[in-house]
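Is this the right way to post structure tokens for a design question? Let me know if I should format differently. Anyway, here goes:
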């Protein structure tokens, strides 16, 4: 199995190199572009198949131990090794990464006839070869982040994803792509510099950069002061990537400007790298430092939950000129706040809830960004006032299947019982009700209450979005009777009309159906995921009984 894991990590990297090679002599222009998009689908499909085989071969009787492990000396003089492996914490994220990247490649191929990389309105151009190579390079770095068991290797993989995401935003994004891309790269690079100092401190003081060895005795050789500094430095870098309030301001701009597949991968995969680092590194390696900072982490988390929800409510209200894509980006600030709250409880219940919420957010928000991107392609806008249409142009009447999928994504995101979004939030709140020993329970009960308020606010703004976009924004008596037209050109020229929209296309069904099915399966059968994560969490938090 270790060879299979190495293959999963190397295949997208080799595929990225192959995508940049000159096309065969018989392929030129459009045919060449479609061929390289097919190459992206093929490579990501093989990676997904290999990751599924890896998951099927995973020993579920021992999910808390490292499997498919390989350990090779890399820089002996510094004690740095190529140490790779997977357990119940990282395996779901490996499969999620492979799945979302494959669906993005499939969506881009299906939509490729209308524009490079699947974006019909992509400004600035750019070759399909570069687009596919960046997607594959991004996948390789993300997979390596979740498989790395050496602190230096983790950092290199963590940084590897920044450049491809920067170029995806800067070359295939919307009109505001330039400032958004620079903001993304500057925030994350500054956070990474601080994180690197913390990682080096842990490795040098602990006598090894190996995560498994450092976690074996919960940070051997690390004094309390060292743990405090390490948590502060590493945590700051991870908090930028998560992102945690108030280090979140790069996220809405990046999402708003990014192309559809960029937003899907940013929300569905890249944000998880930050929270994964908290669980994989800080909880087991620096438990004393985490215990000191846990109340502050929880406080920032619940502020992010409430703040993100209030901003979304403001964007969703009638006449606010809110952008639907920006609203979903701010919703991620709130949802990732629940993940951080679960981690801050330092309990099995809370951390399992955080890991479950990680995967649920990737599935649900990935679906929502797919839908919003397709909606923009159909209407030319993500402005809520335009989409809701005081003209009575409700999405249910114009594209009923599309409207149904958007409503499904919204109710899944608000945490409806029976869908994936419910379990993560519920478990994090339960963990906050009974935090780990040594943490002040009264403070965490207050945090739990604010987290509960956040769920109510989340339900509020998402239901407003469904009412405005899917059902029509204005009351019936305020709508003007209009006749439908065939295209958006009349609306752009000033005509008041209801535009017929294409409903869900075949390639969109293929790309989105797995996310819908997995959201339902995870909601109805949470033991599939919790059965993997709980033993691994017990291994990372020895002595914690709840």
């Amino acid at each position: 199995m270790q060879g299979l894991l190495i293959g999963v990590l190397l295949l997208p990297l080799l595929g990225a190199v192959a995508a940049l090679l000159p096309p065969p002599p018989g392929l030129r222009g459009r045919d060449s572009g479609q061929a390289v998009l097919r190459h992206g689908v093929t490579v990501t499909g093989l990676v997904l198949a290999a990751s599924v085989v890896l998951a099927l071969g995973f020993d579920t009787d021992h999910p808390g131990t490292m499997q498919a492990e390989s350990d090779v000396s890399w820089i002996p003089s510094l004690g740095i090794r190529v140490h790779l492996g997977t357990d119940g914490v990282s395996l779901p994220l490996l499969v999620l990464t492979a799945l979302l990247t494959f669906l993005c490649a499939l969506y881009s191929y299906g939509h490729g006839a209308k524009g490079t990389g699947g974006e019909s309105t992509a400004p600035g151009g750019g070759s399909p070869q570069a687009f596919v190579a960046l997607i594959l390079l991004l996948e390789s770095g993300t997979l390596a982040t979740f498989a790395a068991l050496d602190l230096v290797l983790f950092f290199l993989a963590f940084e590897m994803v920044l450049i491809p995401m920067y170029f995806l935003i800067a070359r295939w994004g919307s009109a505001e792509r330039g400032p958004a891309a620079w903001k993304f790269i500057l925030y994350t690079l500054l956070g990474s510099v601080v994180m690197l100092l913390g990682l080096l401190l842990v490795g040098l003081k602990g006598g090894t950069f190996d995560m498994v060895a450092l976690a074996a005795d919960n940070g051997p050789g690390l004094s309390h002061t060292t743990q405090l500094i390490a948590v502060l430095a590493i945590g700051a870098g991870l908090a930028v990537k998560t992102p945690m309030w108030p280090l979140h301001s790069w996220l809405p701009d990046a999402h708003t400007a990014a192309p559809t597949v960029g937003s899907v991968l940013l929300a569905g995969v890249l944000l998880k790298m930050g929270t994964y680092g908290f669980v994989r590194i800080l909880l087991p390696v620096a438990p004393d430092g985490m215990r000191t900072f846990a109340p502050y982490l929880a406080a920032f988390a619940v502020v992010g939950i409430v703040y993100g929800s209030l901003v979304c409510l403001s964007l969703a209200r009638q006449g606010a000129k809110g952008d639907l894509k920006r609203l979903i980006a701010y919703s991620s600030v709130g949802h990732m706040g629940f993940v951080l709250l679960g981690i801050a409880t330092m309990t099995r219940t809370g951390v399992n809830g955080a890991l479950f919420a990680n995967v649920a957010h990737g599935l649900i928000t990935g679906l929502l960004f797919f839908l919003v991107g397709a909606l923009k392609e159909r209407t030319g806008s993500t402005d809520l006032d335009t989409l809701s249409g005081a003209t009575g142009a409700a999405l249910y009447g114009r594209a009923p299947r599309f409207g149904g999928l958007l409503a499904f994504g919204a109710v899944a995101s608000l945490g409806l019982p029976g869908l994936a979004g419910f379990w993560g939030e519920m478990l994090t709140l339960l963990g906050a009700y009974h935090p780990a020993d040594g943490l002040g329970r009264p403070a965490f009960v207050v945090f739990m209450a604010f987290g509960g308020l956040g769920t109510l606010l989340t339900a509020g703004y998402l239901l407003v979005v469904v009412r405005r976009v899917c059902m029509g924004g204005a009351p019936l008596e305020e709508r003007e009777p209009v006749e439908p037209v065939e295209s958006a050109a009349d609306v752009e020229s000033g005509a008041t009309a209801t535009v017929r929209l294409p409903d869900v296309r075949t390639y969109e069904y293929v790309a989105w159906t797995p996310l819908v099915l997995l959201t339902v399966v995870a909601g109805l059968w949470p033991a599939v995921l919790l059965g993997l994560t709980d033993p691994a969490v017990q291994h990372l938090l020895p002595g914690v009984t709840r």
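Format looks fine. Someone answered above. Worth noting: The first strand starts at residue 67 and ends at 75. The beta strands are 67-75, 80-86, 484-485, 498-499.
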